[in-house]
Every structure is written in C-alpha cells, then in structure tokens.
Amino acid sequence: MGNEAAERTEEATTRRRQKEREKGNVSKSRDMDAALVMIAGVALMGVFAKFMGEIILNMMRDTFSNLHYAKDIDINNFLGVLLPYFQKLGFILLPFFVLLVIITIIVIRMDVGQVFALEKIKFNLKNLAPNKMLQNAKRMFNPFEPRSLVELAKSIIKIIVVGSCGYSAINARKADLMGLIGLDPVTALHVILSILINMIINMCLAMLILGYIDKKYQHYEYEKSIKMTKQEVKDEQKDIEGDPKVKARIKSIQMQMARQRMMSSVPESDVVVTNPTHYAVAIKYDKTKAPAPIVTAKGVDYLAFQIREIAKANNVPIVENRPVARALYNNVPLDGMIPTDLYVAVSEILAYVYRLKNENS
User: Fold this and answer.
1) Among 318, 342, 317, which residue's Cα sits nearest to residue 329?
2) CA-to-CA distance for 85 and 83, rounded, in angstroms?
3) Strand order in the sheet with 271-274
C-alpha cells in the first residue's frame, strides 16, 4: 500500500474529479470563506449602522424619558416589559443576519461550486461500529496526527497575525487614546470609533491574505489527494473505451457474422470472378433492385477458396479474369455497385454467363 501511494504521480482525470465531487470531496478553504463573510459582515454593519443607531437611540430616549413610570412596572410581568425591546432588537438584527446568511451561501457556492453529495448526509451504520468510532476519536484528539498539527499551526499563525494587525492599528493611535482624557463623550466616542474601524480593516485584510494562502494550500492538498497511479489511469481508460480484449472479441464476432451473411449470398449470385486462386468476387445483377451489378461477396486466399467451393456446390458459374477480379476486390466495397469504368468488362462476363445458361437450358 505504501508503494502504491508513492506511485500516485498522475494528475487526476476529468472522470476521477467528477466522482470525487459526487462524493463531496472538493477543494475548499474555510479560512477564505470566513474572511469573505467577515468582510461582508463589516460592510453590512456599515450599511445598517445609521438604521440601527437611530432605532437604538429612539429606544434609549423613550426608556430614559419614562423612568418615572418605573414604579408602575409589574414585577410578575417582567417578560412583558422586555418584549418591546426584544421586538426592536429583532427588527434591527433580522435583516442583517438574513443578508449575512445569503452572503455566506453565495461565498461557499463560489468556493466549491455546485455540489450535492448524498454520501455526505447518508446514514452509515459502519460509523457506529466501536472500532470506527475509536479511529475517528484518535484522529480528532491525537495532537501528533499530521493534519491536526497543520491545523494547530495554522490557528496559532492566524491568531498571531490577526492579533498583531489589530494591535498595530491601536498602537498607531496610542496618542489619540491618551488624549481622550478630559474630552467630551461625543468626541471621545468618535475617536474610539475611528480606531475600531482602522483595527477592523487591518484584521480583515490580514484574514483575507491568510485565506488566500490557505486556499492555495488546500488546492495543493486536494490535487495531491486525488492523484492517480498509472494503473488506475489505464483501468479508467479501459472502463471508458472498453477492454481491448473484449473489443477485439466483439469485433471478431461481428466480422464472423458479416462473413456468414456474405457467404450466404454466394449461392444467389450470377457469377464468381477469380484470379484464379488468390481472389474471388461474387456478382449479382438485378435491375429491379439496383441500376448496376452489385458485389455480393469477395475474399482473398482461404476466403476466396470458400467462395469458389460454395459457388461450385450451388452451380454458380466461375469465370477467371485476373484484372477484373483484382479491380473489383480493390475498388468496390461489399454490397456496392461496380464503377462505370468496369461496366464493359463486367457486362461481357455476365453476357458470357447468361449465354452459357441459355445453352445448358
């Protein structure tokens, strides 16, 4: 098995790729998808910020304007008091999350394409077998498993890179943060908001770059995992085109059947033209079926011998004419009409045959 894995040097064929897609095995990058979804979420926040801010501001204004009614609140109906707030929050967040879900679906679709793999959702009892569950658990919790080590390294790198980008945005505005002391709340809020925006932009860019690198890595791993051995490529080619031995056998049977049909037409032919031994061509002329004589059978060597024997057994005349026999064999297909340049030669042979029949009758 190790040697077989080492021999997987051939690029996956189109058929192999299609089979892998049907199984749900496609190249995908969760980091790239997460980066794009996060950027889309930040963009949506920017679009909905004014709308959300106005609703929250009005909600706070109404709340603080009616604090003197706090003594009239029924403690036993606490949920009824909070229900209007939940409704307003739902009104704020529902469009945001619906659009975010739609964007997530689009991002995943762009990453993996159209994939509908029943095998991924099909229930398999084998997965409940104790040994199978133990193997899966070992793979998941084994820190020294290669894939786990790679994912751990990627997670550490992501935390360091993204965290550093966020910290650099804050560190660059350190002086502005120190200057917030003593400022009015509105100005301080604007400064903090601008620092947060810079930090989010830096982090999104970092995630996008990491996602792009991860996408290239996942594509490399996917291509590596679906590589084929030379034997697999040959076997697939056989499946597509058919086994050469089977094809040869089918062709042999077809030729044998065609030969039998050809031989069965010799007894009904008008004449057999020979070379005399190497070539034999049977001709039939029926003006009700074709305007010119037709080659009903032809062959060389042993096949020519068989045609002559069948002709003799059925009293079909045999005429020796070397040039005509060669010309008919080389230029006229089976069941084909003779060409115009052979009309005279063939008509002379047929006339001779008809004359012999008349004399014998």
Assistant:
1) 342
2) 5
3) 294-300, 279-284, 271-274, 318-320
- Cα(62)–Cα(355) distance, rounded to whole angstroms? 123
* Residues of the chain with confidence (pLDDT) below 50: 1-6
d(CA 313, CA 308): 9
Report the pLDDT value the prediction gives residue 230, as an integer from 0 to 100: 84
Instruction: Break the chain into its structural domains and give their ranges.
Output: 2-237, 246-360
What's the confidence (pLDDT) of residue 119? Answer: 58
Separation CA 138–CA 349 (nearest Å): 89
Q: Rounded to whole angstroms, how far apart are CA atoms 270 and 316?
A: 6
Beta bridge partners, 40, equal: none
Instruction: State if pTM tops 0.90.
Output: no
CB 285 within 8 A of CB 337: no
Nearest Cα to 158, choosing from 30, 259, 344, 46? Answer: 30
Q: Determine the number of helices (DSSP H) and then strands (DSSP E) in the chain.
A: 14, 4
According to DSSP, the residues that pair with 282 across neighbouring strands are: 272, 297
DSSP state for residue 337 in the 8-state scheme: B
Task: Identify the pLDDT of residue 341.
Answer: 86
Q: What local confidence, expressed as pLDDT, does residue 5 receive? A: 47
CA atoms within 13 A on the CB side of 360: 8
Yes or no: say if 317 and 339 are a contact pair by the CB < 8 Å rule: no
Task: Determine contact, residues 275/325, Cβ cutoff 8 Å.
Answer: yes
Eight-state DSSP code of residue 144:
T
Q: At what angle do helices 343-360 and 322-331 cross, to 10 degrees?
A: 120
What angle is formed at CA 107 by the lines to CA 101 and CA 110, rounded to 5 degrees?
140
**Does domain 246-360 fall into CATH 3.40.1690.10?**
yes
Q: Which of 350, 342, 348 is nearest to 282 (CA)?
A: 350
